[in-house]
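Ticket closed. Logging final result for Altered inheritance of mitochondria protein 6.
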Amino acid sequence: MANHPFELKENEERSSCSSDDSFSHRNGSWKGLLRGNGKEKIQHDHDKFSFRRRLFRTIGIMIVLGVIATLIWLSLLLTLPRRHRPQIPSNRVSSIVDDWRKPGDSISLLSPWKSDFTEGITPIACHSHNDYWRTVPLFEALAAGCTSVEADIYLPTKSGNDDLLVGHSAWSLIQDRTLQSLYIEPLFTILQSLNNGSTHSDGNDWSGIFQSSPNTTVTLFLDFKSDGSDIWPYVNRQLEKLRAKNWLTHWNHSSGVTWAPIIVVASGNAPFDLLISNTTYRDIFFDAPLKDIENSLYDNTNSYYASVSMSKAIGRLWLWKFSSTQLDKIREQVSVANEKGLKARYWDTPSWPAALRDYVSGILIERGVGVLNVDVFSSTFYFPLMTRFGKNRLVW
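Final structure:
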């Protein structure tokens, strides 16, 4: 049957469209495929990058939090006191520490005299290292029970002035911070009040600064910073006030060492040759080198302390612990010092962290060190280590 012309035209158009679609599909399919695959690849890469970024961010946050937590833990471990600190006794010396504002207060606050000056304080053989640096020189050490205070001394900078200046360096010197104002005058005033018309049942003709232990001698440790020969006569003149009262521990060739409330020890640039030049009487004793303690030059007729920097004497502490060799070295040095009647002292000891400080202090006490070097009083280190003072040596 013949097709209608209209139907033929419609079939031709349908066929043409089908042919065009087929052509378009054949010729354009590779572009569409690539376009589609490209979008999928970009999306995949984006998702992969986002995942990595989130992963790295999470890992970074975890690392930071871990570091913070570790630092907090270490700070608590190293700085928190491990034992209870006993309450500070209420007495006059503690009040002076609270009220002191300037060097002149070291004298003015001692008047009127209060009989409870060092009441309740147990003296211990600790050395107040660089004592003049403390907020309240001398009195902080006495309030803590320390029986040794250190002053770095310099020649006067003003002509006609005999007062030796006290400070850590020449540029830091201040005219009103002198050996007299910070140490000698206060010590003289304290001893004058404690010994004024008093009687002594123990047979001594003097009372020391610590009322709970009146036989205890306090060490005035003078670190000569100026030339030793130049400053030596000044030091002798400065001590005359205490010497005249027989309050200076001294040695003479006939009776040996006679103990008194104060013993003066010279260190730094102190001239050993001048110190021993008087062969009949001495009231200034030397700080012998502990590293050379076996030298026959040093004995209890001319020396009292034997000191050395810990790091120079035995080296570094690895892993916060002494090696067996280091322990043997400490034992040997301390033993020789004790045999000579001298007090071994190690300075440059760690004051932080607390655990290391307590460990080192404990080892030194166990080895029989004569005096413990102290830089920081605000810490609690010596309360767990020492409980009393006996026979002029440290005890647990």
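The chain has two domains: 42-80, 92-394. No further action required.
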